[in-house]
Specification:
The structure holds two protein chains of two kinds.
Chain A: H1 4-12, H2 14-18, H3 24-36, H4 38-58, H5 64-76
Helix pairs in contact in A: 3-4
Chain B: H1 3-7, H2 11-14, H3 28-36, H4 41-51, H5 55-71, H6 82-97, H7 111-127, H8 133-136, H9 140-149, H10 152-163, H11 168-175, H12 179-203
């Protein structure tokens, strides 16, 4: 069973781990710990789902008017779409 | 501007007074630009939105960015990171056009505290029976509303890192702030968003936890079945 101290150390790395910002050695340490610690894995899974929800929510948006404007300006510069 | 950030500038914006290239005879230029650069318009729109404080100014900045990128497309190295290249053009165009208001935001540097706060919020969500809210509920509108409610410095880092998937260093380059500031603002913003989501899900009735029954008292236990007079 993982020690409480190790869980504390791993949880400190939660955001950098999910952001892919950990050095390789710590990345490997987190992965190994999560394989054996249900409690920490539940925290990481929840936060991973949260970040996916934020990414999906923020990715929506109507950019067509702006895209049309940019294409028109580019066309004035000689840009053509075949 | 630090030496490191200057090294990240695309050559076209690192050289003052560069003249426009002669008309390209490469028929594939426009097709390459359309294929590689134009799909990044939403991304650059968000970058511009994080720099300019006004929607109209942001749209102007996007247009100018793509015009510059098109004029200097011959300097883009095929296969390299076009998102980063365009973001650098956008940022440098912004700084060339106007002075940037420096945000003075009292941001605590305790990223560790914010990380543990996230764990606490997970436990809170579990206790309130809304832990599986992402699977059971379309939280998109609530998240968008919560992002819009964030103060601008926090909203900017969320849009760049969590939505557009910039790395910490790339977001720092775009915003002109230290990487540590990106991380601390980002972690705090995430905590605020999570707290909003937990409240939203619980208040909207999506809790899987039944409200506890009223406490048993002498008045409601005098031989009368619970709930009936």
């Amino acid at each position: 069973m993982a020690s409480r101290d190790e869980c504390t150390t791993i949880v400190r790395q939660l955001w950098p781990y999910l952001d892919g910002a950990l050095p390789d050695a710590m990345q490997a340490r987190v992965v190994a710990h999560l394989e054996g610690c249900v409690n920490c894995r539940s925290h990481f899974d929840y936060e991973r789902e949260f970040l996916a929800a934020v990414r999906n929510a923020g990715a929506s948006g109507d950019f067509e008017p702006l895209r049309a404007r940019v294409l028109s300006a580019l066309a004035d510069q000689g840009f053509t779409t075949s | 501007m630090t030496l490191a950030s200057r090294e990240l500038l695309p050559p076209v914006v690192a050289t003052a007074g560069v003249s426009a290239p002669p008309e390209s005879v490469d028929p594939g230029r426009d097709a390459d630009f359309a294929r590689v650069a134009l799909p990044l318009l939403p991304t650059i729109a968000r970058v511009a939105g994080s720099l300019a404080r006004d929607r109209a100014d942001a749209d102007d900045l996007v247009q100018e960015t793509f015009l510059k990128a098109f004029r200097h497309w011959h300097t883009f190295v095929p296969g390299s990171d076009c998102k980063r290249w365009l973001a650098a053009i956008c940022r440098n165009t912004f700084f060339a056009q106007r002075a940037r208001q420096r945000w003075v935001t009292a941001v605590g540097d305790d990223m560790e505290l914010e990380t543990f706060a996230a764990v606490h919020l997970h436990k809170l969500a579990r206790d309130r029976g809304v832990e599986d809210v992402f699977a059971r509920l379309d939280v998109g509108p609530a998240i968008r509303e919560a992002i819009d409610a964030l103060d601008a410095p926090f909203r900017d880092v969320v849009l760049l890192v969590d939505v557009e998937e910039f790395r910490y260093e790339e977001a720092a380059d775009v915003l002109g702030i230290p990487v540590g500031t990106v991380r601390s603002r980002l972690y705090r913003a995430r905590r605020q968003l999570q707290a909003s989501l937990v409240d939203y899900a619980f208040d909207a009735g999506f809790s899987s936890v039944r409200r506890p029954p009223p406490a048993l008292t002498a008045a409601n236990t005098s031989g009368v079945p619970h709930g009936k007079s």
